[in-house]
């Protein structure tokens, strides 16, 4: 299980797609997942966020349910079938967002404790100013949630965006120390970043040829009937 993390417009989705294509070209079966992609809740979460009225606890619970549904119906079955699971964002984005909104880390670890422990976590690190200009270039405007407007920390959306993204980056860095992220500079051109990530992934896959990965070991003992039960990992 390989996770690509990073803020919006860090190049995360581009790198996930490039890595997926290179892994498949190398003969690996790949199943891609991400947050807000379950059949059960993806559309409901997107619709609910449009009104900008959801409380932080409600959002956390919705995203946790989204993850649980993907675990049961997509992630665990794919890993049991021998797929490489490639995540375009995972629980660390959800935790960083919630921490920026004042959530308790112990509570978050308990809430997202159902998640499988990834084998490799790559974090695309970018300065908030870089993210600001990339966001305007890509969307032509700033997003309410990605600007932290619900926190009312700035006098303008621009100021709020920079403050929120700075806070988010700080929480990502703290999570990186605890969960062992591999930090990658998100500012070079996509092909340069892809070469760096591909080298990391190739080196990792070569090392585990002779032994199951962490996520594989967690799913190996599960029977098909048991895949609906949460797969809890130890905190940290």
Would you give an account of this structure?
The chain has 236 residues and is of the alpha/beta class. It has one domain (2-220): Rossmann fold (3-Layer(aba) Sandwich). It has 9 helices and 5 strands; from the N terminus they run βαβααβααβααβαα. A 5-stranded parallel β-sheet has the order 2-3-1-4-5, sandwiched between helices. The longest helix is centred in the first third of the chain and has 25 residues, at 56-80. The model is unreliable at 223-236 (pLDDT under 50).
Topology:
Layout: E1 2-6, H1 12-25, E2 30-34, H2 42-49, H3 56-80, E3 84-88, H4 91-100, H5 105-111, E4 120-125, H6 128-139, H7 157-179, E5 182-185, H8 190-207, H9 214-220
Parallel strand pairs: 1-3, 1-4, 2-3, 4-5
Q: Can you tag this structure with a few keywords?
A:
single chain, 236 residues, alpha/beta, Rossmann fold, 5-stranded parallel sheet, 9 helices, 53% helix, disordered C terminus
Task: Identify the strand order in the major beta sheet.
Answer: 2-3-1-4-5
State the major sheet. 5 strands, parallel
CATH architecture: 3-Layer(aba) Sandwich
Give the low-pLDDT segments: 223-236
Envelope shape: globular
Q: Give the proportion of residues in helices.
A: 40-55%
Gyration radius, in Å: 18 Å
Number of H- or I-type helical stretches:
9
How many strands?
5
CATH fold label: Rossmann fold
What is the CATH class designation?
Answer: Alpha Beta
């Amino acid at each position: 299980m390989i996770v690509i993390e990073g803020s919006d417009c860090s190049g995360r989705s581009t790198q996930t797609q490039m890595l997926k294509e290179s892994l498949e070209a190398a003969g690996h079966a790949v199943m891609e997942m991400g947050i807000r992609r379950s059949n059960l809740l993806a559309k409901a979460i997107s619709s609910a966020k449009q009104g900008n009225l959801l409380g932080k606890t409600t959002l956390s619970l919705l995203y946790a349910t989204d993850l649980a549904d993907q675990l049961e119906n997509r992630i665990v079955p794919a890993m049991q079938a021998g797929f490489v699971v490639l995540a375009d964002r995972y629980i660390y984005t959800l935790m960083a967002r919630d921490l920026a909104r004042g959530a308790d880390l112990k509570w978050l670890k308990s809430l997202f404790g159902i998640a499988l422990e990834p084998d490799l976590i790559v974090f695309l690190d970018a300065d908030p100013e870089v993210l600001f200009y990339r966001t305007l270039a890509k969307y032509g405007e700033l997003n309410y949630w990605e600007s932290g407007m619900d926190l009312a920390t700035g006098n303008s959306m621009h100021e709020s965006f920079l403050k929120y993204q700075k806070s988010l980056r700080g929480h990502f860095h703290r999570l990186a120390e605890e969960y062992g992220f591999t930090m990658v500079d998100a500012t070079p051109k996509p092909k340069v970043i892809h070469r760096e990530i591909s080298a990391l992934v190739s080196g990792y896959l070569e090392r585990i040829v002779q032994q199951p990965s962490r996520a594989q070991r967690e799913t190996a003992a599960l029977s098909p009937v048991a895949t609906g039960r949460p797969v809890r990992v130890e905190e940290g």
